[in-house]
Amino acid sequence: MPISNIRMKIIALGEEQPVSCPVCQFVLRDKEDVKSVRQETACSTCVINFKYVYSTKWSDGWRPSVDEARKKMHI
């Protein structure tokens, strides 16, 4: 018996969607992360940790390195 209860559902075929965050490179966790990557080009955690903190730099195109993003997540 598998321990995991992971389930996937294909809603509709369409354009390709990223499966990982362009900033931290972690796999997107849920539909909020997918929505966040579409709108903000980063997962919801990276948006909270970086976009809101460094809003001026973020709007100018700055993004943290993968290492910096993961350190902020304590991973």
In short:
The protein has a domain at about 30-70. It is mostly helical and about 80 residues long.
Radius of gyration: 14 Å
Q: Mean pLDDT, rounded to whole units?
A: 86
SSE string, helix = H, strand = E? Answer: HHHH
Uncertain runs are none
Helix content: 40-55%
* Distance between the ends: 30 Å
Quote the beta fraction. Answer: under 5%
Number of alpha- plus pi-helical segments: 4
What form results from the Cα inertia axes? globular
Q: Give a quick account of the main beta sheet: strands, pairing sense, barrel closure.
A: none
Backbone structural class: mainly alpha
How many beta-strand segments? 0
Task: Give an account of the 3D structure.
With 75 residues, the protein is mainly alpha-helical. It has a domain at 31-72. The protein has helices at 31-40, 44-51, 55-59, 66-72.
